Amino acid sequence: MGSLVGHLVPGSIFILIGLWWIYSAWLRYYVCRRRQRPFYVTTAFSFHCCGPRVAKLPIEAFFVLFGTTLGILIELIAGFNRVVDPETGHVTYYEGANNLQHFAMYFMFFLVGIIEILLYYRFPLPKYFDVVAGCLAFSSEALLFYFHGHARDPVEIQLHVFLVMAICATVICGVFEITQQEKTLYPTLMRAYFTVLQGSWFYTTAFLLYSPFHEHYDGSKDPDVHRTTMLIAYYFVLHIAITLFLVLILAVPAYLVSKRQVQAINFTEYGQIPMDNNEDEEMEKLNGTTSI
């Protein structure tokens, strides 16, 4: 990940997933409100925009598996080292420590994708197990990036601290999704919000440290490190504001879709159980939405 592409790949995944979560959380909120049904919590959302057949497939889980597999391959290939001892001729093979850290991050989210597939095929897992797995994956990411900035210059440390803050906020929102007795929109929406925030911050880190348009940042050559750190905090606040603006913008198409297609959307987990029938008991088993 110590390159421009290495930061853009996870950043793109988090931004795309986060934006999709924001839109889908708004849509679920509006549909549930129109049908006078309680809001319910899942990690993944169905692709209702692509028709009922596609909505019944775990497209989001497939996307997560594809993106994490791509990341795993990139890190293992890029981190592979072959060293030949010039005196003895002994050959040593090893993976770079940075690449192993990034591999661990991708692998945790790969497991989340596997769990979502298992839930899709009705494997008998506990309710909200996908949310628990997501919290564990984000917690692992926070731990890895906290130590990723160790022994770096102040600017790189600050970049990683802000990233860890966004990741920890994502975990807190996931915990609230599980623990709240009456499920509401806010924890799910904020989980999506902070996912987009960390994805956009990956982009900022990439172009600050590894930009192809200027020399890579070197703290020893920075004439005013204090000013740079102040600007980085300013950039982070801008990201917070812009992401909030995106949350508001995505509420508009979600509201319009819910208004026009409220009866057409078969809105439950992966679209398997219709909401407009008297199937509250079965819905409770799947989503916990009838006795909250």
Break the fold down into its secondary structure elements and pairings.
Elements: H1 4-34, H2 52-55, H3 59-78, E1 80-84, E2 91-95, H4 97-120, H5 129-148, H6 154-179, H7 185-209, H8 225-261, H9 280-287
Helix pairs in contact: 1-3, 1-7, 1-8, 3-4, 4-5, 5-6, 6-7, 6-8, 7-8
Structure overview:
This protein is mainly α and 292 residues long. The protein is 67% helix and 3% strand. Helix 1 packs antiparallel against helix 7, helix 3 runs antiparallel to helix 4 and helix 4 packs antiparallel against helix 5 (129-148). The longest helix has 37 residues, at 225-261.
Summarize the structure.
With 292 residues, the chain is mostly helical. It has helices at 4-34, 52-55, 59-78, 97-120, 129-148, 154-179, 185-209, 225-261, 280-287, and strands at residues 80-84, 91-95.
The number of helical segments is 9
The proportion of residues in beta strands is under 5%
* CA-based gyration radius: 21 Å
What percentage of residues falls in helices of 4 or more residues?
55-70%
Q: Characterize the main sheet.
A: 2 strands, antiparallel
Class from secondary-structure proportions: mainly alpha
How far apart are the termini? 43 Å
User: What is the overall shape?
Assistant: globular
Provide the low-confidence segments as ranges: 268-292
Counting DSSP E segments of at least 2 residues, the number of strands comes to 2
Sequence of secondary-structure elements: HHHEEHHHHHH
Mean pLDDT: 83
Q: Provide the spatial order of strands within the biggest beta sheet.
A: 1-2
